[in-house]
Design a protein that fits this description.
Blueprint: H1 35-42, H2 45-52, E1 92-97, H3 118-121, E2 129-136, E3 149-156, H4 188-196, E4 199-207, E5 213-215, E6 222-224, E7 229-233, E8 252-254, E9 259-264, E10 270-274, E11 282-283, H5 292-297, E12 300-301, H6 321-324, E13 349-352, E14 362-364, E15 376-377, E16 385-391, E17 399-407, E18 423-430, E19 435-440, H7 457-462, H8 464-471, E20 479-484, E21 491-495, E22 517-523, E23 532-540, E24 548-549, E25 563-568, E26 574-578, E27 597-602, E28 607-613, E29 619-625, E30 631-637, H9 645-649, E31 667-673
Parallel strand pairs: 7-14, 11-12
Antiparallel strand pairs: 1-31, 2-3, 3-4, 4-5, 4-6, 7-8, 9-10, 10-13, 13-14, 15-16, 16-17, 17-18, 18-19, 19-23, 20-21, 21-22, 22-23, 23-24, 25-26, 26-27, 27-28, 29-30, 30-31
Bound molecules: MU-OXO-diiron and calcium ion (2 copies).
Length: 681
Amino acid sequence: MSNPSKLIIDNGNGDEPLSNHSGNRHFNAVLQVNLRRRQMLKGGLGASIAALFGGAGLAGCASTAGNAGGRLIGFGALPVSSADTVVVPKGYTARSFIPWGTPLTGNLPAFDPMKNSGADQANQVGSHHDGMHFFPIEGRDPYRGSSTEGLLVLNHEYVEPRYMHARAVGQKLDRGGVPALVNGRRPADECRKEINAHGVSVVHIRRGGNGQWSVVPGRFNRRITGATPMDISGPVRGTDFVRTRYSPEGARTRGTLNNCAHGVTPWNTYMTAEENWAGYFINKVAAGARTREQSRYGVRSADSKPAASRYGWELADSGADEFVRFEVTAKGANPAQDYRNEANGFGWMVEIDPFNPDSTPVKRTALGRFAHEGVVFQAAVEGRPVVCYSGDDAINEYIYKFVSRGVYRKARGLANGALLDEGTLYVARFNDDGTGVWLPLAFGQGPLTSSGGFSSQADVLVNTRLAADRVGATRMDRPEWGAVDPGNGQVYFTLTNNSSRTVDDGANPRAPSRWGHIIRWAEAGNDPTATRFDWNIFLLAGPETDSRFAGKPLNKDQMFNSPDGLWFDRDGRLWIQTDIGESAMNRGDYAQFGNNQMLCADPRSNELRRFLVGPVGQEITGVITTPDGRTMFVNVQHPGATTTAEEFAAGKLTGTWPEAGRYGRSATIIITRDDGGVIGG
Ligand code: FEO
Ligand code: CA
Ligand code: CA
């Protein structure tokens, strides 16, 4: 290694490497370029929409409650910005809130990154804020109730160890680096602190008479970390795939990791997604000797450079069980004697009841195992199955849908969670003609049989990607967040970019995809459980010279790239957040976009305006409002991450938001309108 002070990896943001080597087709390998696709790319998007959505198109959608004929978007668009500050439109105010390290539980340890211990971190807000929801304090409905008091629940995706430890000062560490090893080991409490900065925070908040929000001390506040005991439920529970020394019966595991986006169930619980978890584990055998579930997901091997996990937690000098589990090498006589299966406990959607601090989070295995970006639910209908969608954010991976076997009954409350344990997991195939098919991943159907190499539904789920390869799913440009239009049930997904794409297809029309796009579909017959759908491209992101929205290039008030976060508010505004990677942002032809930002679209009027620009080095991710739409919460993740290793060693920081002169800290921002109006309106 050229940098001896750094143990691990410079793998940037820890995104998973390309591991889809399936032969699934890129559609225009078949030399039929579809006319409809040409229409989308060359300006006929409106016509395409009308065709794809059967003439009803978007103009025919029922308007939602808050859009009774009025304009949805009322603010003035912002220009791009590369300043180290948050910019919002005239008439709006943004304030930072609950940054990493805010005292939350237990003895409320004050934030001091030079002195705080691993145990302190377990009582403080975690780092790298991401997906988030505001649960009104009544605890009955995720979108109805108080707009002045509730539980703000947010994910903490990963950490930057250089900002966390006194020992890092002066060392040459980039955003992925960890402080130098000591005798080949990592000090155990550094590892514990990093593990405890991951996971989820449940924060009880209230708006005071002065209009300012603050944390309410008390029993609701909770930290869930990379070490919190969790139940495994669904078809994988109790199978050989998840037996470990910690849980020989295969029913439990510890912690959730790399929690990117989230989901909100109709029964008022929070789902946290495990995204780029694979790199947190290493099997110290040759790459080719890993199990198939390890190799298809990119669990590290003895051939990885360096041969250690992302943060090297398996090297903790205490040798304690809580750390050695990150090495998944088979060492004992059977799985109950080692941690060969530990990584199989990750890659799931995890359900959390935010109103019960004593509840055990549940890994819902029926929803599949992959680099879950998040999950988004269709509106629940009494007596009908529950339907949700989830993207696998890695290069050339897939989009999935789950349909429960049982039906939703509002009166069952939290017991509806069991609906997520039994049902059909589907993967999407996007045909070039604008139609699509949901392909079931069900053991015994199609190629998913014993002769096809699968032994059970648990096997199909642990190896979800392999199963999706076999049924012929469409390889996508890194699926990130999804959102369901509250007015018509149409589903939107961001496809952030794909530098490795060499062959384009209808649903992923640029090779390589440097700027990303947003796709949308309508389920056949407007039935969320349908197995067929119609799709089109909502928007091709990029500069004015290479983008398309409503038949025109994006203008200066609209241009963006790398769409990631996506959320429909109650009135039907579509909020779009960007995540240009740290190695590209503010450089070359990415410089014209400035810092990462958030835009607001109205899919009915085809308006699109830039609403917010964040500080230097960060991504904007996570957005929710109070039920009245008058307070918005947005997360700013990894401000200042563009500081190079050399700059860090010299004590020079490229970004210091939210406090001048200190390390950048991920934080939430609270946005209000000075006239008290609805955000965006
Ligand atoms: Fe964690 Fe795919 O963004
Ligand atoms: Ca994301
Ligand atoms: Ca991203």
